[in-house]
Amino acid sequence: xxxxxxxxMMRVGDLEESLDWYQTHFDYxxxxxxxxxxxxxxxxxxxxxxxxxxxxxxTYNHGESEYEMGDxxxxxxxxxxxxxxxxxxxxxxxxGVGDYxxxxxxxxxxxxxxxxxxxxxxxxxxxxGALWSLDHTMxxxxxxxxxxxFWSRKFEYDLARRxxxxxxxxxxMEPPEASEEAMSVELTYNYDGRSYTMGDxxxxxxxxxxDLDDAWGQLQTREADDYRxxxxxDNLYAFTRTHExxxxxxLEGHVTN
Length: 257
Fold this sequence. Notes:
Elements: E1 5-11, H1 15-25, E2 28-35, E3 39-46, E4 55-61, E5 73-81, H2 85-94, E6 110-114, E7 120-126, E8 134-141, H3 144-155, E9 158-164, E10 168-174, E11 184-190, E12 202-209, H4 212-221, E13 237-241, E14 247-252
Parallel strand pairs: 1-4, 5-7, 8-11, 12-14
Antiparallel strand pairs: 1-12, 2-3, 3-4, 5-8, 6-7, 9-10, 10-11, 13-14
């Protein structure tokens, strides 16, 4: 199954404030918008993002301003050039972004900020991809074997990178032959047996498929959760879920096409 990552969705309480924040601090531009009766979706990314790069979807539910963050979703990560981590972090702080986890506190390997709704954003050093482009989305899992197996069996993703430390492990899942500019899924497994709450501030990951009905059929053959099938979504998209409840949207082509 050809299913590269297309976007990651998060819910926001004040759409204009969030748009201003991402456009001001990350120089994102609006790539597309969907206005419905009860919600608005806006898709954002760098002006010079790669064709196979992922975008950020901000969802504003009309009249809703507060969401529960939970901890089953961790963060999105955006790219900064090698050697510019401190400079870019300082630039964000000087421009009004709250000081959260500076490079020094992270052994100068990465840093973290938070957007107006509290979504965590990691700054990672990369020598590829546009500045501030999406590098990965992190989710926390309670069963690492099952989580790696889910992405491998259901979507045919490869285990591209791994890190196993004293108290936690990281597994990066990507489609075969994914380009450096594509987004990956980071599965974080903590060894202490903790459980997680999903919350509703994060929405879903989305993958592109060539044929929605065919991809859905393959997923059902592979025993994926029959959560929201194409027919229930007007044959525009569909949703399945991981065994731990993270939602995954399927759609034909790129969401901004």
